[in-house]
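Intended use. Records such as the Riboflavin biosynthesis protein RibD entry shown here are meant for training and evaluating sequence-to-structure methods. They are not intended to support clinical decisions.
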Amino acid sequence: MNPNPLVGAVIVKDNKILGIGHHEKYGENHAEINAILDAKNKNNDIENSTIYVNLEPCSHFGKTPPCADAIIKNKFKKVVIGCLDSNEKVAGNGIKKLKEAKIEVVENILEEECRKLNEVFFHYINSKKPFMVMKYAMTIDGKIATVIGKSKWITSEKSREHAHLFRKKYSAIMVGINTIIEDNPTLNCRIKDNPKNPIRIILDSDLKIDLKSNICQTSKEIKTYIATIKSDKNLEKKKNLENLGIEIIETSAKDNKVDLKELTKILGEEKNIDSVLIEGGSILHAALLKEKLIDKALIYIAPKIFGGLNAKTPISGEGIENPDNAIKLIDGKIENIGEDLFLEYYLKYN
């Protein structure tokens, strides 16, 4: 629910659920308010009841009035909170207000689970940088394409459908220009029920993108950024791209490429993008890993062998010499999706 956290609330009294609610849309009622309205619509008396909520109730006026005030007004007896809000506008103030109103507050119930539920929100609030998620599919022998570059399809249809859930979950999707040239993708979300297209970010240092590509031809329908190097060159190309509805982001050059650290700062601070799904090739993955910019990895492994000394692998770049210097995958899980394996891990850098 970018840029807001995922929040749900349940109202209970005498071991009976009186109302439930969640934050449905940015700028609309928060979870606590929807739970209160749900209870009242059912003619349930919520005075002296307990409300369970996974995130600290807000105490400030934003798009909606403070939820802490509504809890006090409706004379709740107890509030059980999963975790505190890192937003400096809230950060303990909601709890303080509730305690001052003599409402019992229980904090940090299932805190780890609640924080993981809103890992994007907490990361963005605390760093002002987007949560960066690398996704790729490979064979059991670590190939993302055959020796002649064919990659359709490595994984099963079920895995590909599963992967599109992440295009809906995260705010933006990022690829390099080579992916655009080789595959001519649209980078949209193809979930049948309630699809939500991510913002598209194309790294194109030399503005090689074809104006007739699927990205350019759909840029008035789907928000699109092209990140390139600051330059007085390609002015006409920039103008043509902007006429198609594409916004150009310019960064300093680093090794004749887009400065990735500068780009992520712009995406977070200026474009308010809280999360990015990276579906690039091995070069982009390696560049982002070198800058320690990837926070999480989503990996699909198919029970297939491509072989081939020159077949592409998920990560290229310079590599490391000493195994002790490897980037580690931690706190993860592995599950079966059809015939494939799906790995979801966080990255730990040295």
